[in-house]
């Protein structure tokens, strides 16, 4: 991987980290336990709980991705960054731009997914 590509990836990772941080902060403000004793009717309470579940899933997903990106940022300067952990081939740069935290090329990722 060229230095220009590493630099472009570093910028991309920083942008995604900043975006995710906003996401995480915004969702954590909306995360609150649904009261067990409340004057709301049961259907209302069920809806509240469902909403909280969706918010929590988004929150957990954003946090996981944030940590993976931080990890990718740390590894960016390593010589083997951008090589597939399965087949050792170069991961397409376009794929890394979309998913800088990926450790597999598209071929291996597809095989492991099926
Ligand atoms: Zn591979």
Describe this structure in words.
With 114 residues, this protein is mainly α. It has helices spanning 3-30, 42-75, 93-98, 106-113. Bound molecules: zinc ion. Residues 84, 86-87, 89, 104-105, 107-108 line the site of zinc ion.
Topology:
Elements: H1 3-30, H2 42-75, H3 93-98, H4 106-113
Helix pairs in contact: 1-2
Zinc ion is lined by residues 84, 86-87, 89, 104-105, 107-108.
Tell me the helix content.
55-70%
Summarize the biggest pleated sheet: none
Estimate nothing, just give the exact number of structural domains: 1
What is the CA-CA span between the terminal residues?
Answer: 29 Å
**Order of SSEs, N→C?**
HHHH
Count of individual beta strands: 0
Average pLDDT reading: 91
Assign the CATH class.
Answer: Mainly Alpha
Provide a short characterization of the protein structure.
The chain is an all-alpha fold.
Index terms:
single chain, about 110 residues, binds zinc ion
């Amino acid at each position: 991987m060229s230095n220009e590509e590493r630099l472009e990836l570093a910028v991309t990772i920083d942008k995604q980290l900043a975006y995710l941080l906003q996401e995480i902060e915004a969702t954590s403000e909306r995360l609150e336990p649904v009261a067990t004793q409340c004057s709301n009717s049961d259907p209302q309470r069920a809806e509240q709980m469902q909403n909280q579940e969706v918010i929590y899933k988004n929150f957990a997903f954003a946090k996981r991705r944030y940590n993976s990106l931080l990890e990718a940022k740390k590894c960016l300067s390593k010589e083997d960054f951008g090589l597939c952990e399965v087949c050792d081939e170069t991961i397409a740069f376009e794929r890394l731009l979309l998913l800088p935290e990926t450790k597999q090329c598209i071929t291996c990722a597809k095989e492991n997914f099926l």
